[in-house]
Amino acid sequence: MTRRLIALDIDGTILLEDESFSPGAVEAALAAEAGGHIVTLATGRSWEATHRILDRLGIRPEYVVCSNGAAIMSRDAAAPGGYARHTTETFDPAPVLDLLLEHLPAANYMVELEDGRRRYTHSVGDWLLDDANSEMVTFDGLKGDPVSRVVVVSPEHTDGEFLSLVERMGLTQVSYSVGWTAWLDIAPDGVDKSTALEQVRALLGVDGSDVVVIGDGRNDLGMFGWAAGLDGRAFAMGQAPEEVSHAATDITDDVEDGGVAAAFETLGVV
User: Fold this and answer.
1) What are phi and psi of 38, to 5 degrees?
2) Which phi and psi (to 5°) does residue 196 adopt?
3) CA distance 3 to 207
4) Spatial distance between the Cα atoms of 235 and 8, rounded to a whole number of angstroms
5) With 80 as the cut, is the pLDDT of residue 131 above it?
6) For the chain, which domains are there?
7) Are 259 and 210 in contact (CB under 8 A)?
8) Is pLDDT above 90 for 37?
9) How confident is the model at residue 55 (pLDDT cuts 50, 70, 90)?
10) Confidence of residue 259 (pLDDT cuts 50, 70, 90)
């Protein structure tokens, strides 16, 4: 049997906006895992926000990709929650934060430290902050330590306006992606979901043609190109933006209509 490595995005892929699962996604993931395939998550979320979804999904992959590829978690029975940090990529956030503040003085900012702790200037509901692992600070308090990512939310902009503004900034020495809304994720230079997934693929010994990725957002473009370049499969959700759909090898149904489950059926893994 061909053993596939199947990496799933979370938001807009396996999860609906109300945090419920896409129809059939849980059953499909569990069936594929029971059939000997490797089902994991590759998300922009921090580990703090990811492990809750992993627990609800019921799968226990050996490796999980978080923070848009800046963090790889590995299964470890001795670690809290059963996972420990395998690798974390970091960078100095000060230069990019100063540039962002110049153009987006009213935005909300958050940084994620190497150990997963987060510092933020204003609380945003989607960040799923908690008192144990997060701290509200001044803008200058975001600086001073290496970080795995910087997150910026600018409610006063549409996603189109935000994308245009970010492109005009000329961000260099970092990797970045703009989300569906005015949400910017900044990672270390050259790091995205694909760079982490390539490490996972090599660690697990999976052939390139047996990798599958499923996603819906601009931060999935890197892993789409990676999978396609290895002769693997890259499924875009039906509601994905045009540029994301164009980068995919396959298009599945919308998240509301069970797109992940439909993709698993197409693959023949359920």
Assistant:
1) -100, 115
2) -70, -40
3) 9
4) 10
5) no
6) 5-88+191-267 (3.40.50.1000), 94-188 (3.30.1240.10)
7) no
8) yes
9) very high
10) very high
